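My current task is to audit a protein record that another person submitted. I need someone to confirm that the token line plausibly describes how this chain folds. Take the sequence as given and treat only the tokens as open to question. This is what I was given:
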Amino acid sequence: MSTWEIREIKPEDNQQVKDLIRSVLVEMGVPKVGTAYEDKALDDMTQTYEDERSTYFVVEENSRIIGGAGIAPLTGMEDEICELQKMYFLPEARGRGIGTRMITRCLEFGKNMGFKKCYIETLPYMENARKLYDKNGFEVIEKPLGNTGHYNCTVFMTKQL
């Protein structure tokens, strides 16, 4: 029986999620500029994902947030394409099947909101993340879609919903 659960973010989770995302980005050696590290969205994730076609899920284990991921309309292509956003897990959450469950939950939400395709951006050296996306049906595309503002992310992937 799993000791963790996936649930929607609550206002009291905001600081924990911000700290988690930034710590994982530092661990991965991700540049702080041109990535999620500097996103103003991190300051209030519940507000960022309050639109009805957006949501952010957290993974909670023993009253502690150990991961999270969001789904929202892709800026500039809002009608048909959603973006899997800010999907990060602490080391103790990795390799336990949580990532696949999180992707499934996010994609189900996107499909239920009427999106036809999901988009994600990542970095070439985030190999485990890229393997997870591959395993879940995402395919690499040549150039970015929409306007995420993450100019340091150079790997672009999509999946039909």
